Fold this sequence. Notes:
The chain is mostly helical. Helix content is 72%, strand content 0%.
Amino acid sequence: xxxxxxxxxxxxxxxxxxxxxxxxxxxxxxxxxxxxxxxxxxxxxxxxxxxxxxxxxxxxxxxxxxxxxxxxxxxxxxxxxxxxxxxxxxxxxxxxxxxxxxxxxxxxxxxxxxxxxxxxxxxxxxxxxxxxxxxxxxxxxxxxxxxxxxxxxxxxxxxxxxxxxxxxxxxxxxxxxxxxxxxxx
Length: 185
């Protein structure tokens, strides 16, 4: 039975969504192609109509999930959301950079390129949200804030002490508040 172009596109989106969810929750190596296809409601055989290999799936999934990251237009609400216990606890739906950044270092050049492009776009967006008087300071603030935010989520997730996790998130929010208000003066 022939599948319409619209259905092919929908199937592909479903595969990328499910791969993104599974990879973030468990890592690249712990997820099989068969698991991704089952989660997407498709047969394993349909995989090769969309992707050349698991490496291709990883690279395209990174591009897909990073392009869907919702940042907003204001820094404070984004920081509050990102450094919340809810977001920190959402491994499967949370930040792909915090969940997969370290794993991506060991992936194909295409996967690293997708992560690099996502980082570049994210930093550009955050630079626009910063309120410092000049571009160089806004860029430095964006890089510092994003680095602190991703690091804080990683540290909060690795701790088995909920109080310590919440402290890491709260103190990072406070540090970002202090550093952004100091640069705006």
